[in-house]
Amino acid sequence: MPRGSGDPSLGWFRVCRSHFRPFFVYAGGGIVLGAVALWHEFAAWPQFLGLTVLGFLLWPIVEYTIHRALHIRARSARMRAFLYLAHGIHHETPQVVGSNFIRFSASAIASALFFLLFLGVLRSWPRAVALLLGLWGGYLLYEFTHYVAHFGRPRTAWMRSLQHHHRRHHQGEERARFGVTTPILDWLLGTLRGLRE
C-alpha cells in the first residue's frame, strides 16, 4: 500500500510537513552541519563553497543513475519485488502524494554512503560535508521538482518543460526520460527515447 494519500492541493509547505519531513531534517541539519564544518576549517571557506557547488552539480548524475537503475529488467522475483517497492509503486499510483517522495530511510542511508565515499576521497570531514551539502541541495530540488511535475501548475517555461518531460516518462516512456531536475543527461546519453529491450 502506498504511503499517504493526501490532497495535492495542500500546497508545498503542508505537503512537506505531512509527507516530506526529510526536507526539514536536511535543510535544518545541513545549516547546522555546514556551520560546524565551516567553523572547523574557516580559512578554507572558498574551497568549502566550491565543493558545495560541485556537490550540487553532481546531483543530476546521481539522480539519473539511480532512476535508470530502478527501471532495469529484473530477472529474479526478489529483485522485481525490491524494484516495485522502491519505485514501481510510484509508477502505479503517481496521483498519491506520498508515493512521490523518497523514503527518509533510503535517503539517510544514501547520505551516509556518499559521506563515507567523499570522506575517503577528500580525507577531510569538513570538505566531505561541503560536498554532501551540495548533494542535499540537489536532492531537495529534485523532491520539489518531482512534486511540481505531478501536482503543480508551473509558472515558468522551464518548469513546464520539466513537467512535460517527466509526464512523458510516466505515460508510455518508462524506459526513457530518467532525469527529473534536468533532461541534459537524457539528451547526452540518448534516453530521450525509450531504451531497446
Describe this structure in words.
It contains eight helices and no strands. The protein has 197 residues and is mostly helical. The chain has one domain (8-158). Helix 5 (104-122) runs antiparallel to helix 6. It is globular. The two termini are 29 Å apart. Mean pLDDT is 87; it is low at 1-5.
* Strand coverage percent: under 5%
Mean pLDDT: 87
Q: Total number of β-strand segments?
A: 0
Order of helices and strands: HHHHHHHH
Classify the helix fraction into a percent range: 55-70%
Shape: globular
Number of helices: 8
Q: Which radius of gyration do the C-alpha atoms yield?
A: 18 Å
Task: Explain briefly what this protein structure is.
This protein is an all-alpha fold.
